[in-house]
Amino acid sequence: METHETAWRTAYRHPGSWDRPFPPLSMVDLFDHSAKQNGNAPLIDFLGRHYSYAETLDGANRVAKGLHALGYGPGDRIGLFLPNVPHYLAAYYGILKLGAAVVNFSPLYTAAELEHQVADSGTRMLFTISASALLPTALKVLEQSALERLVVGSVAGALPPVKSIFYRLFSKKDVAAKPNDPRITAFSALIANDGKLPPAAIDPEHDVALIQYTGGTTGSPKGAMLTHQNLTANARQVNAIDPEPDMEDRILGVLPLFHVFANTCVLNRTVLSGGCIVMLPRFNAAQALAAISRTRATALPGVPTMYQALLDHPKIASTDFSCLRVCISGGAPLPGELRTKFEQVTKAQLVEGYGLSETSGVVSANPYLGEGKTGTIGQPLPATRIRLVDKENPAHPVREGEPGEILVAGPQIMKGYWDRPDADADVFIVDDNGTKWLRTGDVGQIDADGFVKIVDRLKDMIAVGGFKVFPSQIEAILYKHPAVKEALVIGIPDSYRGEHPRAYVTLNEGEDATGAALTAWLNPQLGKVEQVDSVVVRETMPKTMIGKLSRKDLVAEVLG
């Protein structure tokens, strides 16, 4: 037995035991049980309009029957091309009730990106809304792909009555007209039924519930096949590390629901606990602060750039954060300085976690209460195993205390990639005991207390004259400079050394540090091969669809 597993068994910082089991459970059974338990309690607060568990269950049942009437059934792939709106939950759980699989698509996709993933996944039908930012794109894909049908919801119909009237009167430019096309069904028409449909037979451990496309740093995105058990296990694992699981939950839902982090921590875990999702269509710092004040939100899952944006907003000083039990940071490394400043200003606990699309969302987290470790991703969730292996030969473990590629095993690990057996062969390792391990592509270390630290991404490493340089280590130093707000380091081709590091930063408001001054400050703190050729000061930094810094987009922009 590895030393760190002993630490997880004997000195586990999360509540309960590390090696507890999570029996097979379908997403349908999880949702139905919670909906019946919580009845008229609010599941969604959408800009002040409440949707109860009973209403959402009824909507999901009607979606399932409506889809069945159109000829869809078990095994079909049905897409969601939606922002954070109430339609998402009814469609999501309705598709699962049908025995079909959900395919998540980002609302920020271009028609070409959407068309590619629709074709790759074999998505037959797509849910969207009548927003001008979405419907025209979906219509293009309907015309140019094998997509059979669109279901289109009304934005105004989901809003509180006063806001709905205002939207209809003053936001016509934001609404696209729904064409008169037999391939296009209104959401209201789809659910115009009694919702009575025999339940689909679901095998939780083998049936795919969600195809979640990876963001990836290189290559084209791959569809991670997440089973019902993968998703329910991860929701239960995240719920299990809450030291106060019976406390009232109001989760601020600003992370986009199409992202795997939100799928587990905002959606499925909240449904499991009987909580309420305070839903915002997208992240906006002013709206998020107002929602915290209005609803007395108890938890805020987010990415580091969201917490930075809240700190930058002038209304943060007048916002009462005493209602927040925990803020959970994921999606990207959390700079220690940002965590410290956020906790000082808000007095709210900010804990860092870690996960991947391939792991249903969450692998590890620092403890909500008690002593965590800044700069680490904490200890693994219950029933989750982590080991480190040689980066060049993953069959060989590394020596105790040395960095290595992180492998993960547990009930939340994906079934495999959709229609990519070649990729499966690259990413899975089966040990002598028959345990299936996922290669994460991340380099980490595990300390004597069983806390895991991410050193860097294998794919992000910069090769300098035969030496490997980790960008995150340079970025961590840059974040210590009081002028630096955001930092990314990439490798620039070099005819002699192969690559050399270059840093890109944005500055905090009111700061005017030059690139030359930052370079002169940074390089003496680095080893010779780590030293950057320059620090480039930018107005903005490229970001992903969930708001985290995008190294891939920066590389594409700089190197073409």
Which key features would you list for this structure?
alpha/beta; 23% strand; Rossmann fold; GMP Synthetase, Chain A, domain 3; 560 residues
Write the layout of secondary structure elements.
Blueprint: H1 3-10, H2 27-38, E1 42-46, E2 49-52, H3 53-69, E3 77-80, H4 86-97, E4 101-104, H5 111-121, E5 125-129, H6 135-144, E6 149-153, H7 155-158, H8 161-170, E7 184-186, H9 187-190, E8 208-213, E9 223-227, H10 228-240, E10 250-253, H11 260-273, E11 276-279, H12 285-295, E12 299-302, H13 304-312, E13 326-329, H14 336-346, E14 350-354, E15 364-365, E16 379-380, E17 385-389, E18 404-409, E19 416-417, H15 421-427, E20 428-430, E21 436-446, E22 452-457, E23 462-464, E24 467-469, H16 471-478, E25 484-494, E26 498-507, H17 515-522, E27 535-537, H18 551-559
Q: Care to describe what's here?
A:
With 560 residues, the chain is an alpha/beta fold. Helices cover 32% and strands 23% of the residues. It folds into three domains: 3-22 and 226-456, Rossmann fold (3-Layer(aba) Sandwich); 27-40 and 52-201, 3-Layer(aba) Sandwich (Rossmann fold); 461-559, 2-Layer Sandwich (GMP Synthetase, Chain A, domain 3), CATH 3.30.300.30. The strands form six sheets. An eight-stranded mixed β-sheet has the order 7-6-5-3-4-8-9-19, with helices on both faces. Strands 12-13-14-15-16 form a five-stranded mixed β-sheet, sandwiched between helices. Strands 17, 18, 20, 21 and 22 form a five-stranded antiparallel β-sheet that branches. Helix 6 (135-144) links the parallel strand 5 and strand 6 (149-153).
